[in-house]
Protein 1
Amino acid sequence: MHSPPRPVTVKDQQDWKIPPCISNWKNPKGYTIPLDKRLAADGRGLQEVQINDNFAKLSEALYVAEQKAREAVAMRSKVQKEMLLKEKERKEQELRALAQKARADRIGVAPPPAAVPV
């Protein structure tokens, strides 16, 4: 009825060999699986990456907003420095006038009419 069984060749054994299941979460038998095989089994390389145009718009908007914020900070800093410089100059002028008055009082001479900016 049946033909006699043939002896199994090495090629037949290799053809029938089933590779073990590859999992990224469990490896109960402790197999060392190369990364390229893991990635091939994962299927991530088969998907085509698409980047939405809105990411570019968002990036550009953030860049412009950052530039405007930097300009605003620089302008505020400049105005504040100018105000501090004016205040310092005004106080220095007041101290000069006060020193001039003190010298004049010591000598007993009437102070010259100097306009003190306020």
Protein 2
Amino acid sequence: MVKTTLLKCINQTMPMDEGQLWLNNKTPDQLGIPAWRSRVMYIPQRTVTMEGTPTDFLEEVRKFNVHKNSKNTQDDPVQIALDWGVRPDLWHSKWSNLSGGEMQRISLAIGCSFRADILLLDEPTSALDEESCEKVEKTLGQLNCIWVTHNPHQAERISNAGTLVMRGGDNSPANSLSGVVVDQHEARGNGKANGSTQGQNNPSSSSSSTRTSH
């Protein structure tokens, strides 16, 4: 299984053939898929170029019932992105006029602003320079994340809940969570990771930052 497929299965944008998922002892079906996806939010590596501006996109997303009816207080994504070096005026620029790094940071800021229980991050800093990367890592390090990275140095920096090492690559079942995680290292500081998805009948909520790497 490739790592992007794993994130999409956890987010329920791709079906699973095996394995089970829980968030605070509730399955996706019990929460409802829209609610699950808002609480276990997938942020892709590359933002698809859209019509309009980031502000237009944000306003549309906020109209979704799952966000309108949410009890969570939303943070200001413009301020989050500003902390990462994105000027406020860029939110009114066409997506097509933004650089890859600007699009990536704005998309991340929007995702962070909704205060999801868990962020599923697919190489979220791949388009960023070192300075911007450090700023983003500092913010994301305070959130609950499942974070895919191919950079072993970044994996070491960001992990505070243990390491989930995926082996098997293309030989693994395409849409199976069972057996994907084969090595879970002891976490620094708090003793062990708080949860992982292994297809076991052991409901758990996922917390703290978890990384997947080669």
Protein 3
Amino acid sequence: MIKEEKLLFIFIALFLFSIVMLLVQNIKISETKIIGYATEQTTVSNVTISKAFSIDMSANLSEGILFGSISPDSTNENATHNYDGASSGSSMYINVSADSNTAVDFCIKSNDDLKTSAEDIIGIGNETYANNVTTTDATSPALADETSLTTAYVKAGTNITIGNQSYFRFWLDVPAGQASGDYNNTIYFKGIEIDASSFVKKGCVDLLYLFKSKPRIFFLAINL
């Protein structure tokens, strides 16, 4: 009888021990869940803002680069709007719009020589321009800085900042004996972004540009 009581006691003790161990295990599981809820995870938020800009012409440059009537054997004839701005400055300019987020370089080229419908030609080397960034008056852009137009894009104003302009003047030489007629060609302007981090100017030809002006027309009539 005593032996049976001992066995029963051992059985009850083992049973109680098992119950206690199960309770302890549940407590550990609960504690693990609480710890899990308290942990933190992180991730990175990233965005890249692209460079963007827009440029526009002054009304008089949009009208065209006009020379009116010129006699043969004339040198450095002024375009109509070379000196009709404030303080006798040029009223022909290209502006970097205020909604841009980068500075801009401007480029310029001509499509061809000045020609009549009869194929009379004034060579492209006779068409010249000068430009000045941000300001213009009676002396700037200066004739002394004139550059002949070419059929390839070249820089004509660099690092024009947001809200600022590059002003232009144009001149024309008409050789002696030039045939009379109406001569025309097309002038293109192009804006490209500048690398502000290194100030390395990007080439006019090698980049896809974001803006090209409407063609500008040189027009003149040669008097006999």
Protein 4
Amino acid sequence: MLYENDPGGFGPGVVPFLRTRLAVVSNPGKRPFWMHQLVEYILGGALVATGLQSPQPFVPSVLGAFILLYAASTRGALSAFRLIDRRVHKVGDPVLVLVEIAAGLQPWVSVDNGTRFIIVAIAAVHAVVWWGSSFTQRERRARAAAGEPGDRSTEIGKKAGRAVGSGVNMVRKAQAARAARR
């Protein structure tokens, strides 16, 4: 047993399953960031749609458009512009949730009560999604180093490449000879 409280002896971050080792996400229980972005697109689209159906469309439409732009500009699998780092997004989401709540409760711009309720409900969903999301960025894999000169697989690959190249050259020479005879 490598680690305490590890009955399978597999180590941290590995789940024993049918006597195999399956790697787990770095933040167990957290959603991957692409799901977070997808939900933000859906929430922004829902706010824009709510604004289009509302008698006073300004607040929900502008808020929805801002959420869509915010999700599209954060680096991730579903981003369009890749301008904002995920760490900044992680800090900016609670601020955006507070702005959503303030926009739903503010008394200055006229918004009907049903739209206010939808804005605050979307803010609550956004907060839950933020709480359960993983903002870690995947580390880039280091490229594998080329094999050593005496490596058997490298030698086989070189020989195969030379054989194919020689065959292609022979076909081209034969075609050129036929064309010259005509």
